[in-house]
Specification:
The structure holds 2 protein chains of 2 kinds.
Chain A (H helix, E strand, L loop, with lengths): L5 H17 L7 E3 L3 H7 L6 H10 L8 E3 H13 L7 H18 L11 E3 H8 L7 H11 E2 L4 E3 H8 L12
Antiparallel strand pairs in A: 1-2, 3-5, 4-5
Helix pairs in contact in A: 1-4
Chain B lengths: L7 H57 L5 H4 L15 H7 L17 H12 L6 H16 L4 E4 L7 E4 L6 H11 L7 E4 L10 H14 L4 E3 L7 H7 L1 H8 L4 H13 L4 E4 L3 E3 L10 H6 L8 H10 L1 H7 L1 H5 L1 H12 L1 E2 L5 E3 L7 E3 L1 H11 L3 E4 L8 E4 L4 E4 L13 E6 L5 E6 L10 H22 L1 H11 L6 E3 H12 L5 H8 L1 E2 L4 E3 L7 E3 L8 H9 L1 H11 L6 E3 H14 L6 H11 L6 E3 H6 L3 E3 H7 L1
Parallel strand pairs in B: 1-5, 2-3, 3-4, 6-10, 7-9, 10-12
Antiparallel strand pairs in B: 2-13, 5-6, 8-9, 11-12, 13-14, 15-17, 16-17, 18-21, 19-20
Helix pairs in contact in B: 1-17, 1-23, 4-7, 5-7, 5-10, 9-10, 12-15, 18-19, 23-24
Classes of the chains: A mainly alpha, B alpha/beta.
């Protein structure tokens, strides 16, 4: 663990505060606890739902109303942003996905309609999304709207990957 | 999941991969949500900042004229013969001819449901109602509204809901959608419309016509509350006056005159079963419903001028004008009703962002409820992304019925169905001009580019100030400053609380060292028809205050001719710039003024003049050419 320059820490705090304030509806330094995941992700972090829960616990949310105060939010999130381990690399991810989708294709070969090997039917995607940290109904619909080619009801995973992947050099904290 | 693998290692990979897909997906969605939120934040900040500017500009204007009695500035424009109380339906029929070529609705009074349907049908097909019928309708509406008290009392019938709608702001599509989903107004289907029918949208006139028509047909079942936009000065600034003058080229002055009267006769509040209070803005700690009910509402018209006076010139006008003093309480009472906003902090503080009314906390609400034995307050006046919002522990509901208020896809609208047990049910909707629903990514993209466009225009309008602020940080004259300094400069000059670091990538270029090339934020913009005689600083000021100048010129132009004399223009401009502390050389104005007087007749068409200072985006022009 190495020391960070004061300037960097201050900049990170400011950026985190900015993101927080966008969700602060009444400008009174509080946000709804349900938006914490969104705020942290929009800062360029890549946590799972479980990791988000852990962070929320550190923020000591008040029971009534479920609000998080900026004072509690800032130290927790600043630490997260400084600690780069929460950001998962691209390559490992792609390998997992390729393996997984390839596997799914093998299992479901019988129902597969014989299009290019880079696509999967919508139903199979639904299946894969029900494991892990499953999507709720709304997330499912939104994801399918982006991922599925509406005419053929197929999922082209290379295109999907392109849509999801964000240019690393533009995301925080690589570029303060 | 049925695709159960035989090997545990593969199973683990599958799980990992699923989690990864989900992480990525949520990551992308979060970024989209952030973009959507800051876009709405941009829209709202600019809207409120504009309202603040307006206050300042009016102070300037009034200051320069304070020696003129206030009542003279605020009296009706010189077309008094139309506002004549005795003018009745037959007079309009005699004076205004409807040609045979007119295929729009021909109203016959007293109105019936057939007339209302004809109007709806016509407006769906983008037809205009003829001026004679408009004037007859307004005249009848005024007659009916005069009979009504300031506060209307309703009681729920044993089985029917009452529908309550909020701000419509000229969005005809929303009104038609509400009628489609919820049915037309009738004895069995009662409605309360809570103000702000006009301004901003392009069908304010049509909305008024429909609402007034139903009011005349069902006076006990359709109720209207006045909003802060049912006001002459607001209409000048926010588009309604322009809409009327464009649609009714021959009769707009008469229509606007009559409308001013009608607006002043709109009731101020509605109470259902003595338990649910419905009004446009909010309340304050001095709100007294008995006082509100007793005051003479039509006498306090054009209160916004008085708002400016009260908040800026108490000294001058209290001395010179006993009038304003006498009506002070009434004016304040109405301002509170029409302009206040609820907040979660206790107490009642002046509403700084609006310049009128106050921020009222849960304690103020509780006290009022206790005093009058109320159960709920339904109000509008504030934009809400979901069309409604509940605050003060369920006691206060904000209802906003104009969907896509800032931009296609920016927000939903909603209306309330109040059951006979006084339980509210919310119905949300969103009008769309696309037959295929845009997906989330497209919707956010539309809102974001619209918001950024407005922001860039504001940046351009403050170019000189920004340049000198940047220069202060750029000690070595390199043309680059740190992100921190750039953000600080933007915030201090523009006075907008926005996430500047997040927006930086859309507004200015950054070099690989992490420094901002600050002049790059001006590259995209230029003025439409640059006037050679205008110095850059002058042009920029005109650009920034274009809308406000429009209002001032309209007020000076008493006979609504669209022209003012060179001298009036110079004088106004001089006072304006000096009071705002803008340093402009004397002769530059004279040169400019002479160059604008195209036909050399000593008068300026100020609309044409102001059009020249409209900001245009270079990239946009390229796309259309």
């Amino acid at each position: 663990m190495f020391l960070f320059a004061d300037g960097l820490v201050a900049e990170i705090k400011k950026k985190a505060t900015e993101a927080f304030e966008v969700f602060d509806r009444e400008s009174n330094q509080t946000v709804d606890v349900r938006e914490i995941g969104c705020i942290i992700r929009s800062l360029g972090c890549f946590p799972s739902e479980a990791e988000i829960q852990e962070l929320i616990e550190k923020m000591e949310v008040e029971e009534a109303g479920g609000f998080v105060h900026l004072e509690k939010f800032l130290p927790v999130v600043t630490k997260v942003l400084l600690d780069r381990r929460t950001y998962t690399g691209k390559r490992e991810g792609i390998r997992c996905i390729v393996l997984f989708l390839f596997y799914s294709v093998r299992i479901k070969r019988r129902s597969f309609q014989g299009k290019s090997s880079q696509s999967l039917k919508g139903q199979n995607i639904i299946l894969c999304c029900l494991s892990g940290e499953p999507f709720n109904q709304e997330e499912m619909e939104d994801m399918l709207a982006i991922a599925l080619d509406p005419e053929s009801d197929t999922f082209h995973y290379r295109d999907y990957r392109k849509k999801l992947v964000v240019d690393e050099t533009k995301t925080f904290p690589f570029n303060v | 999941v049925n695709c159960c693998p035989c090997s545990t290692k593969l199973f683990f990979t599958v799980l990992q991969a699923a989690i990864l897909i989900q992480k990525w997906y949520r990551f992308t969605m979060a970024r989209l949500e952030m973009r959507r939120r800051y876009s709405l934040s941009i829209f709202q900040s600019i809207e409120y900042a504009d309202e603040q500017d307006q206050l300042q500009v009016f102070s300037t204007f009034l200051f320069s004229f304070y020696l003129v009695p206030v009542s003279e500035i605020f009296t009706s424009p010189s077309a008094p013969q139309v506002v004549d109380e005795d003018l009745c339906l037959k007079e309009f029929e005699k004076k205004i001819d409807v040609p045979d070529s007119y295929y729009g609705p021909r109203l016959s009074f007293p109105l019936t449901v057939e007339d209302a349907n004809a109007l709806l049908h016509a407006f769906r097909n983008e037809q205009l109602l003829h001026a004679r019928y408009v004037l007859q309708l307004l005249s009848e509406t005024r007659r009916v509204l005069k009979e009504m008290p300031n506060i209307t009392h309703l009681s729920t019938s044993y089985s029917k809901d009452i529908t309550i709608c909020g701000d419509l702001h000229g969005n005809l599509d929303d009104l038609l959608l509400i009628f489609y989903k919820n049915g037309l107004p009738s004895e069995q289907n009662r409605y309360v419309f809570n103000g702000d029918f006009v301004d901003r949208g392009k069908n304010s006139m049509e909305i008024l016509i429909i609402l007034f028509a139903f009011l005349l047909i069902y006076p006990n079942d359709l109720h209207l509350n006045r909003g802060n936009h049912e006001d002459y000065i607001m209409n000048l600034r926010y588009g309604f006056t322009k809409e009327v003058s464009k649609k009714y080229k021959d009769h707009w002055k008469q229509i606007l005159c009559l409308l001013r009267d009608v607006f002043s006769w709109l009731p101020l509040a509605t109470i259902i079963d003595s338990k649910v209070l419905i009004l446009h803005g909010g309340i304050s700690d001095t709100t007294d419903l008995d006082f509100l009910n007793a005051l003479e509402r039509s006498k306090v018209r054009d209160h916004i001028h008085v708002r400016v006076i009260l908040f800026s010139f108490k000294k001058f006008l209290l001395i010179k004008h006993p009038l304003s003093h006498a009506h002070k309480h009434e004016v304040e009472c109405i301002l509170d009703i029409l302009w206040s906003d609820p907040r979660s902090q206790n107490g009642c503080t002046p509403n700084k962002s609006r310049g009128g009314g106050c921020y009222f906390g849960p304690d103020v609400t509780a006290k009022l409820f206790e005093r009058y034995n109320l159960k709920m307050l339904i109000r509008s006046h504030e934009f809400k992304p979901e069309g409604y919002e509940i605050s003060h522990d369920g006691k206060v509901i904000t209802i906003f019925s104009a969907s896509n208020y800032y931009e296609e896809g920016s927000n939903r609208g909603a209306y309330i169905k109040l059951t006979p047990e006084l339980t509210p049910r919310f119905v949300q909707y969103q009008v769309s001009k696309f037959t295929r629903r845009q997906n989330l990514r497209e919707r956010v993209g539309t809102i974001e580019s619209s918001a950024l466009k407005s922001l860039r225009e504001k940046i351009y309008a403050h170019r000189s100030e920004l340049t000198s602020a940047f220069a202060q940080y750029d000690v070595n004259g390199t043309g680059r400053i740190s992100v921190n300094d750039w953000a600080a400069a933007m915030e201090s000059v523009l006075q907008l609380e926005l996430p500047w670091r997040m927006l930086r990538s859309q507004l200015a270029q950054m070099n690989p060292d992490g420094e901002v090339d600050f002049m790059s934020c001006f590259y995209d913009l230029k003025m439409d028809q640059p006037i050679k005689e205008a110095q850059p600083a002058l042009a920029e000021t005109l650009c920034r205050y274009r809308k406000d100048l429009e209002i001032i010129f309209n007020i000076i132009d008493k006979d609504h001719s669209g022209l003012i004399s060179l001298e009036e223009f110079s004088q106004t401009w001089r006072l304006f710039t000096s009071h705002l502390g803008i340093d402009v050389q004397d002769d530059s104005i004279d040169k400019l003024v002479l160059s604008i007087d195209y036909n050399k007749d000593g008068h300026i068409d100020f609309n044409e003049f102001l059009e020249a200072f409209h900001v245009v985006h270079r990239l946009e022009k390229k796309a259309t050419s």
